[in-house]
Every structure is written in C-alpha cells, then in structure tokens.
Amino acid sequence: MWPRSLGSYLRAMPQQPLAQVPSDVRWYWQDLGSCRETDPLLFFHPQNERGSARAKRDRAAKLICAGCPVRLECADYAVRAREPYGVWGGLSEDEREVIYARLDSRHYPRAQGEGIRAAAQEIADAVSPRVLGIA
Ligand code: SF4
C-alpha cells in the first residue's frame, strides 16, 4: 500500500521490525498501488477496533485491493515480511495469520515470488466475490 504522504503512512502504520523485511525487497510497486491516494487509515485498524467495524473497514480496503494492478507484488511482500498489521494485497491480518501459522518457520518464504507460491490459494481467495460479499 502507498499512502498520500510518507508522514501519514508512518503515523498510521506500526513499525515493522527491520529483520522481517526481505533483503531482496523492491518497492517500485508501491508507486502503482490503487491505495496511493487513499487514506492509509482505511488499511490499518485503530486500536481496539473489533467486530463489525473492523470487518467493514477491512472489506472497504479489500475492494480497493481487488482492482489494484500490483496486488500480487503487494501480497507477496506482506507474506514474505510477515507483515503483522494492515490489509496488504487484499489479505487481512487474520488471513495472513492463518498463512503464517501454516508455514514452516525454518523454511519461511523469503525470496521474491515465494510468498505468492506459498499462499497462492489464500491470495486468490482474499478478494473473491464471496469474501467481498458481491457474489
Ligand atoms: S494491493 Fe491493496 S494495499 Fe497493496 S498496493 Fe494495491 S491497493 Fe495498496
């Protein structure tokens, strides 16, 4: 995701421990993301947001991701980095937690493209019409 400004992004996004960011990461796709002009708060839940409020915000973010030309690059990065917060590539925090729990931490996907391969079905399902409630 790419916010309106770096400042608003940093305020909205909890800091990711640097060790989680893959060494081969490239950021070109962030300039092409459909969220570039969107309020980053749509993609990151405020403290204590739960239940239907979170589901509604996540769904709104996912609808933007669904039409994003770099969704796979974004999802790949999020899985490889074990991003803990926010909607990335259409995947919610809860959806990524399921992926993280399934993957072997000793052979965690870290190289470019491995995140997509390791979670192909989840990434495909994340913005399916059924999940978005438009089926
Ligand atoms: S997939 Fe979603 S979060 Fe990622 S760049 Fe695109 S719109 Fe932003």
Description of the molecule:
By secondary structure, the protein is mostly helical. Helices cover 44% and strands 0% of the residues. The chain has 7 helices and no strands. The chain is globular, with a radius of gyration of 14 Å. The mean pLDDT is 89. The structure holds iron/sulfur cluster (SF4).
Write a brief structural summary.
With 135 residues, the chain is mainly alpha-helical. Helix content is 44%, strand content 0%. It has one domain (38-132).
Question: Main traits of this protein?
Answer:
135 residues, mainly alpha, 7 helices, 44% helix, binds iron/sulfur cluster, 4FE4S_WBL, DNA-binding, metal ion binding, metal-binding
Q: Please identify the structural class as seen in this structure.
A: mainly alpha
Which overall shape is indicated by the principal axes computed on the Cα atoms?
globular
Please describe the biggest sheet, giving its number of strands, its sense, and whether it closes into a barrel.
none
Ends apart, CA distance between termini = 25 Å
